[in-house]
Amino acid sequence: MQNTESKQPLTRILTGDRATGPLHLGHYVGSLKQRVELQHTHDQTVLVADMQGLTDNANDPKKVSANILNVVADYLAVGIDSNYTTICLQSQLPALAELTMYYSNLVTVSRLERNPTVKSEIQSKGFGRSIPTGFFTYPISQAADITAFRATLVPVGDDQLPMLEQTNEIVRKMNSLAGKEILVECQAMLSNASRLPSTDGKNKMSKSLGNAINLGATEKEIKAAVKSMYTDPHHLRIEDPGKIEGNIVFTYLDAFHPDKALVAGLKEHYQAGGLGDGQTKKVLEECLLEMLAPIRARRTEFLADKGQLIDVLRKGSAAARERSQEVLHDVRDVFGLNLL
Ligand code: TRP
After folding, report:
1. Predicted local confidence at residue 195, as pLDDT
2. Which domain of life is it from (predicted)?
3. Which residue from 43, 141, 209, 278 could staple onto 100, CB 3.0 to 4.6 Å apart?
């Protein structure tokens, strides 16, 4: 908890999510849970990255616009509280786009080409030679997101490390041009939860592949997802010994079941033989149903009052807009562009 006697400013945190779909269990263990804790001890801003979402969805903009409020509802449903966290919308902060323009003069095309995350995204999205410029340069825009809040801590998954590296290169370059420290370097805060695998155990979680469990999943969807979950393909008969490693049911039990001793017992039994996948899935199903029921209920409640969600975004964006303008002013100063 915050020590009210100390005058030390709180460490600034900035995180964000592309608004391209509702959030799922991977987001929950990987970052949402931590944000709920961090909001009480840190100065936390969470950015709904609608502009970044558009960088590969400009032909289907509804995929972004229709998900903005879903993402905000997901945040609030898991306990991110707008009294403690600034929740803002990227497209409503013009300083971010302006910073991106200035920073892009400091980043070479070949440097962008070396970004491993963007490289693999370009491949998996099948752009071929038709890579949207905005997509190719989104690491620069992400650097704008982070630096605009002078964030020193960025809780992200390890796939985002190249973005933070790029951000810090820009920070060093700007500071060296300025001859003083106008921007601060950031550090990743990697969650100690390992990345949650998709329910098929094969791919990255994605809505189109139907291998993710959304925070708002219905009971029916949760049951279907658990039922189809990848286990041990060699565990054919109940009496056969089964494998835990790579068995997604156990990975999820480890991530979500509150009773660790019970899970340890199940693992032992499964490995020895005599425990069927139907039984382990039943335990997981019950655990997920119980965990997601209150989240789903709150999410539905929030989504029933869109005005309230918009209000949260409006207030958060107004505060964030003001903050980001300060950094923009400092950056313009370096280039001598505060004439008027
Ligand atoms: N690239 C992040 C993702 O795909 C989303 C994001 C946008 C972000 N801006 C950010 C993350 C700033 C951290 C900081 O999930």
Report:
1. 80
2. Bacteria
3. 141
Indicate the average pLDDT of the chain.
94
17 in Cβ contact with 52 (< 8 Å): no
Q: Is the CB of 215 under 6 A from ligand 1?
A: no
Query: What's the one-letter identity of residue 289?
Result: L
Structural domains of the chain in order of their starting residue, each with its CATH number = 12-196+306-334 (3.40.50.620), 219-300 (1.10.240.10)
Q: Amino acid letter at 78?
A: V
Residue 290: which H helix or E strand, with range?
Answer: helix 277-303
Q: Ligand 1 pocket check: which of 13, 17, 117, 166 to mutate, most ligand atoms within 8 Å of Cβ?
A: 17
Return the beta strands (E) in the chain as ranges.
12-18, 43-49, 85-89, 153-156, 187-190
Direct distance between the N- and C-terminal alpha carbons of the chain, in angstroms, rounded to an integer: 43
> Is the beta carbon of 56 within 6 A of some atom in ligand 1?
no
**71 C-beta closer than 6 A to ligand 1:** no
